[in-house]
Amino acid sequence: MEPGIRRYRVGDFDIAVVSDGTMRLDGGAVFGIVPRVLWEPVVGPENVDSQHRVPLGLNCMLVRRGEHLLLVETGLGNKLEGAMREKVFPGDYGYLIERLAALGVRPEDVTAVANTHLHADHCGWNTVRRGNDLVPTFPRARYYVQRGEFEVAMHPNERTRATYLAENFEPLVRTGQLELVEGEAEIIPGVRFLPTPGHTADHASIVLSSRGETAIYTGDLVHHQVQLERPAWIAAFDILPLVSLETKKRLAERAVRERALLICVHNAFPGVGRLVERDGVRRFVPEPGLTEPEPAP
After folding, report:
1. Can you name the residues that pair with 8 across neighbouring β-strands?
2. pLDDT tens, 240-274?
3. Separation CA 261–CA 91 (nearest Å)
4. Residue 294: its pLDDT value, please?
5. Is the pLDDT of residue 166 over 90?
6. Distance separating alpha carbons of residues 197 and 137, to the nearest angstrom
């Protein structure tokens, strides 16, 4: 197994978590009003660099069921340059396509792409440069996103314009591949959006249900697993922090009740585990998967 790939199975779904790499963001922004004296021991001082930045995974999810091949999120991609790559989104990333190839998956094999929201670190590989043009990376896929999220992304404000990059979604409009949905829309059989507002007003997680088993791709409802254990730890990136708090509490209740497999995009690779409760205390327990590949960068 190649680095940055981990396999799971949920009911009839074959799942591969595929890493696009890692980025580094300011720890104070990741943990919001939680003081550094509390969050640094959780992250591990050895993982905090001289600029107080912490590593965040870019864990995408490939789902196969029958003739359907769904990719959830597409990482940061390979289009960022200059200050955007060095200062806004520093890190080591851009590996998604080669890791899909290691699984025997070509871009033209993907039949659907779903974005929980349209921040740049979740949809960078939606498109690629071909000479002077921007084109969809996955030429046969329908791309699914919540209608409200798309409308906000198309009209960014002073706070959001650094992360809503039109190059990641406007080309999909031109080719007719963009599918705008509302609420709990089904993407492929057994896979649905779950509205989870807070990070953005129209943020939506992805739920897989099959044979009594559940998996939830959390999107940016969670930036670090401790935020599942302690829902009041809310990222400064969340546009609606108090909404995010209530949304996390509801999702955590469901995750414990259904013993759902949780796939967390920004956890350290592979970012997968289950939320368990003992004596009133909740803890995120990592799940190793079907194989043990080398860790992602």
Report:
1. 15
2. 999 999 999 999 999 999 999 999 999 999 999 99
3. 27
4. 42
5. yes
6. 28
Which H, E and C letters describe the chain, residue by residue?
CCCCEEEEEECCEEEEEEEEEEEEEEHHHHHCCCCHHHHHHHHCHHHCCCCCEEEEEEEEEEEEECCEEEEECCCCCCCCCHHHHHHHCCEEECCHHHHHHHCCCCHHHCCEEECCCCCHHHHHHHEEEECCEEEECCCCCEEEEEHHHHHHHHCCCCCCCCCCCHHHCHHHHHHCCEEEECCCCEEECCEEEEECCCCCCCCEEEEEEECCEEEEECHHHCCCCHHHHCCCCCCCCCCCHHHHHHHHHHHHHHHHHHCCEEECCCCCCCCEEEEEEECCEEEEEECCCCCCCCCCC
**Other CB atoms within 10 Å distance of the CB of residue 89:** 20
Return the number of other C-beta atoms located less than 10 Å from residue 176's C-beta.
Answer: 8
Whether residue 22 has pLDDT greater than 80: yes
**Cis bond upstream, residue 139 (ω within 30):** no
Pairwise CA distance, residues 34 & 44, whole Å: 15
pLDDT tens sequence across 75-111: 999 999 999 999 999 999 999 999 999 999 999 999 9
Q: What is the pTM of this model?
A: 0.95
Q: Most distant CA pair in the chain: distance in Å?
A: 59
Q: How many CB atoms lie within 10 A of CB 183?
A: 13
- pLDDT tens for 274-296 read 999 999 999 999 999 986 544 44
Q: Which residue has the tokens 């969340």?
A: 238
Residue-range domains of the chain with CATH: 5-286 (3.60.15.10)
